[in-house]
């Protein structure tokens, strides 16, 4: 691990001024410490933000508000989350392990780095780790890589489970930086790789995630997260889907779907959603609409199986959501 | 990186010895390596604030009920502090990347991967390791159950399994074998002693 200095931020303003001066925020550290040990990450200055008052979950108007420093465990177990947005709890418990969830925070979860093996393999080319060093996944092992949003520079997926649920639920980020506060959809936190895969998110220098706001609507009750993976727990998604559905008299009034494991960021399936409005909530409708998830997909030899697995996962997630009592 | 613990009256359980043990030799080698790495040589290190190089930081931890004041390198994980600084080698280093669970400890009562927690970020924390479970010669019920149910073969993952199992029971995630398996999934056993591990946890949970 390359030497670094560590500063404990006493307050939010304190943290942001240190962040704007080039420091790197650290909360749970489950991604960052691991990558620092591999020297994939080499921050010179860390700002420990764990003392900041961002550990609260509460209801504000029509929103469930989750503080950035709430741990994955706390969020998954919280009574308001389980009551108002149970799919957030479900997606969190499908991710990582109990030990990791006790350290990792909600803000950090969204900013975690990719699990593409070449990213942490310093003798392999990886444009995300080292710009212009090439992408070893394109001609290498890419069975677990993305179909959607890829470029000739990067195929890596975003690994978060709860981000998939948050994108499906139209959650927004509230961030504070040197130029004040702003909010935007969680979906817009993530950049597509394009020619600059090393730039992963849209936060400006010094900006700090304060909270995540999740609107609580009629779709929240019938919502499920389905994760398909190589073993039944403690594994990243091959394909996952969050589905939230609002049904009136067996007809779909509104529906939200996002997928993990298939995109270079959590991927909202808007064509599929549109095709389902006003349709009966049955398997035939789900299967027909789920084919539209393939729009724009670019399979490669190793991950072409996801062209079947992704729509099948969406169909099954929709059925699970529909059947929530 | 070797002994920065405050000396205690009883020597903290470490018998004085003039013999160079295998462990001491490994520690010496590790210290030499850390020193080499901390010596400014590359452009990267020159770019880092100079005051941080080789700077030790003092933290306080309560480890298995005992207050310790420690001078540590900011790069040390809690795992490295336990093993290298405090000589508490019950906690094992498996993957050192948060994937195997061998380093599981309780931090302020919650199970974590100690390899991924920088000790400098946990000043004042209370830590329980495998060495802190037994009361004298009386094993913790889960330690005894691992023996009775053969919840291990080689034993390397066992301290992490037991610490994780203690937390799993106190969290109440022991309603069924499937629930135990899901909530113990962060602990890998290459010998495949899972059946005995699940039985041991289930048994102790039922005994309350």
Explain how this protein is built.
The complex is a heterodimer of chains A (325) and B (208). By secondary structure, chain A is an alpha+beta fold. Among the domains of chain A are: 5-50, Uridine Diphospho-n-acetylenolpyruvylglucosamine Reductase, domain 2 (2-Layer Sandwich); 223-322, Enolase-like, domain 1. Chain A is 26% helix and 21% strand. Chain A is built from 11 helices and 12 strands. Chain A has a 5-stranded antiparallel beta sheet. In chain A, helix 9 (270-276) runs antiparallel to helix 10 (283-290) and helix 10 (283-290) runs antiparallel to helix 11. The N and C termini of chain A lie far apart (51 Å). By secondary structure, chain B is α+β, with helices and mostly antiparallel strands. Chain B has 2 domains: 11-47 and 54-132, Beta-grasp domain (Ubiquitin-like (UB roll), Roll); 141-207, [2Fe-2S]-binding domain (DNA polymerase, domain 1), CATH 1.10.150. Chain B has helices at residues 22-38, 43-47, 78-85, 141-148, 158-171, 177-183, 194-207; strands at 57-63, 66-72, 104-107, 110-113, 126-128. In chain B, strands 2-1-5-3-4 form a 5-stranded mixed beta sheet, with helices on both faces. In chain B, helix 4 (141-148) crosses helix 7 (194-207) and helix 5 packs parallel to helix 7 (194-207). Chain A binds chain B through residues 1-6, 26, 29-30, 33-34, 37, 42, 44-45, 48, 50, 73, 96-100, 102-103, 232-234, and chain B through 37-38, 44-45, 47-49, 51-54, 57, 74-75, 77, 96-98, 101, 104, 107, 110-113, 116-118, 120-121, 164, 167-168, 171, 173, 181-183, 185-187.
